[in-house]
Structure formats: structure tokens, C-alpha cells
Amino acid sequence: MASVSEEVKTETSTEEKVEEKPEVKLPNLGTDAEDYYTFGIGAIKDGKFPLAVQAWLKAVEIEPTMVKAYNYLGRAYYTQGMIEGAIDAYKKAVELDPANPKSYINLGIAYRYDQEYDAAINELNKAIELNPLSALAYDEIGMALMKLEKHEEAIAAFQNAAAIDPKFPQPHNNIGVIYLMQGRSKDADTEFKKYEELMKEKSAQQAKIMGGPHP
């Protein structure tokens, strides 16, 4: 039977073998913001979110008006659940490019995720002012209205989204959920079937683009 001192030595030696992974540092790419932006794109494709964030932060440090870097920063933060960081990045994108509806949509989605539903609706309405045919903006407004339990207004928003883009599946699913909550099971079933139908069409189209379904 091993003594206490031997057990302690064994545990210590085991702990000594555990090596911490070195922190990945951003390479020096010079003084061109575009180089850091492009590096960040490659890093995000490899799933290296912290490295991508470092690259885009460096890009906006060099070129503070690089809107696309702020949008990618927001996306990276959002994907990692760092919503405050995402909101700050998207706010900067909106400030620098107030005529771009996509930036308002991104900011609205981040606000909705942060449960700031009125703020989300406000930003999404700005997107619609710039692009009245944004099905995504209407769908996101509907999602925020659902959380505020304004169900009839939410249905109207989802119906607008579906009318603008008849191939957009999500609004039908969302309407179906509200109908279920209202006890309108037949209407809900109709919407869910439409959602499933559109999702199948979407999957078939994606398979076609990728070279056909695999056996």
C-alpha cells in the first residue's frame, strides 16, 4: 500500500504533466487594415473565434471606419453569446453606415436576443424604412412582438414577411405557434404544413446546388 507521501508525489507529478495550451496570438500583418480583415475571415472559417476577433479589432484600430469589420465583429460576438459586444459592434456599424438596412437588422436581432424587445423593434423598423421589402426584418419584428405577447401584431408582421418572400419558411412556423397558443389548432396545422413544405423545397434546392442528394 502506497504511503501518503507517495500518493502526494504521484498527484504532483501528474499535475506537472498537464500543459496549458499556449494562447494563439495575432501575427503582425503590417499596417493594412484589409490584411487583418481578410485574416479574420480565414480564422472564423477555421472556427478560431478569438483570433478572428483580434484580427478585426486590429483592423478597426487601423481603419476606424471599416464597417464590414464591425459587422463581422458583431457576428463573432453574437455567435459566442457575447451579446453586449455584438450590440456595441453593430451600433458602430449603424453609426458609420446609416443607410445600410442590414446593420439595423443585425442590431435588432442582437437586441431581441438580449430581451430588449422594444429596442429590437425600433431598429428593425428603421431597416424597413430603408428597405420596405425586407422579409427578414418583418419576421424579426414578429418574433419580438411574440415575446411582448402582442400576438395579433406579431401575426401581421409574419404575414408581411411571408407575402414579401413566399419561399421564406420561418414566418409560417411562427404563425402556427401563435395559433396553437390561441387554440386555433386547424389553422396552426395549415401553417406548420406550409412550413414543412417550404423547408423541403429549400433542402432540395440546397442539395441541387451542392451537386444533388447523396445516397
TrEMBL record:
Classification via InterPro entries: TPR-like_helical_dom_sf, TPR_rpt, Ycf3/AcsC/BcsC/TPR_MFPF
Keywords: Repeat, TPR repeat
Annotated spans, Disordered: 1-25
Superkingdom in the source lineage: Bacteria
PROSITE patterns: TPR, TPR_REGION
SMART domains given in the database record: TPR
Positions of TPR repeats: 33-66, 67-100, 101-134, 135-168
Pfam families linked to this entry: TPR_11
Gene3D superfamilies: Tetratricopeptide repeat domain
Coiled coil: none
Basic and acidic residues biased stretches: 1-24
Protein name from the UniProt record: Uncharacterized protein
Lineage per the UniProt record: Bacteria, Pseudomonadati, Planctomycetota, Candidatus Brocadiia, Candidatus Brocadiales
